[in-house]
# Entry
Amino acid sequence: MSSGTGLKGVVLDETRISLIDGDAGKLVYRGYNIHDLAHRASFEEVSYLLLYGALPTRTELSAFEGELKNSRAIPESVVEIIDRVKAAHPMDILRTAISAVVGLDENSHEAKAEVALPVGVRLISQVATVVATMHRLRNGLEPVTPRDDLSHAANFLYMMFGKEPAAEHAQIIDLDLVLHAEHSSNASAFAARVAAGTAADIGSCIVAAIATLKGPLHGGAAEAVQKTVEEIGDPQKAIDYIEERIKAGEKVMGFGHRVYKTDDPRGQELRGVARDLGNKMGENTWFQILQEIERAMEPYRSKGIYPNVDFYAGAVYSLLGIPEEQFIPMFAVGRMPGWVAHVLEQYEDNVLIRPLLEYTGPRHLRYKPIGERA
Ligand code: COA
# Structure
């Protein structure tokens, strides 16, 4: 049986949402370099850019922020559903809750941009509320009512921890969300586009994306990196640990990328944040372990294996007190605008996405009644 190609190198369609130059390590959202946006634009501004194709004016941004703020609350019945399934994997909880949110939204069911855009904007807000609410309920805490005087990132931390975050921490999460906001036809955005291609409503597309993000080869890598760091425990043990893993034929989580064959520009940003935050908090063992892992992986750079965005994300989250089980949901909070933009773009000039599989199984077997089978 062939190991498959995973559609490696296949160009599915044209897009105007983002560009990844995997050899140059460059990421561009709607024409703007990620490094520029990371340091200058808020998550709200970047969301607007991804959805509408241009940076907002002051008036447009303030109207958009207002729309996001007005959408932060989730129905009480969805809070009850989250409570019922709170023992499940956080991504299963998120998928179930968002399914309920869109199922209850009577105005969300038509597969066209005029309907999908406002639903998408609401979902950008509500995914954050669901993720914070599940954290509260899983830890035996009351959900926190969203505030409308805080930014998306600050309100998210407020809803998770029940107290207003330090401005610096909100800024770090804002940066992290900007870095995760969009990444072309990655597996989850592709899943969203496949669902949109069938003329399914945007809610179904987002649920498909959430389901696809769950796996360790996609959204689950940051959590896996953090587990590796904890297992290593001491920077001096990192090199031996990695060598053993590689010898055993295992992949080192947080390394490698289908498109980047050099340093991931999002990882570059988070590397600096993890280092500075660790130093400031007097907790730099994690960063040192990560640096040693990077050193151990240097020989594989010639094969195009470099750290990816997930390599430093976990350390940043942990330093901010965000538990491991919330790492993949955090990715979803950030990726929401990208998913919505892809669904809208797919609707624009829709073609059913339906590739072929080459059949390699038997062709001429004769049916045997059950009593005659060995
Ligand atoms: N550690 C060690 N070796 C790795 C590696 C890693 N993290 N990622 C890729 N490789 C090696 C493979 O073993 C393979 O080697 P081979 O040619 O000798 O068989 C080669 O690099 C190509 O890897 P492959 O898995 O075919 O590339 P891909 O494009 O399908 O994989 C990923 C991309 C992301 C799935 C892969 O790099 C991976 O599993 N990384 C770890 C998970 C991760 O961090 N995911 C988050 C992505 S943002």
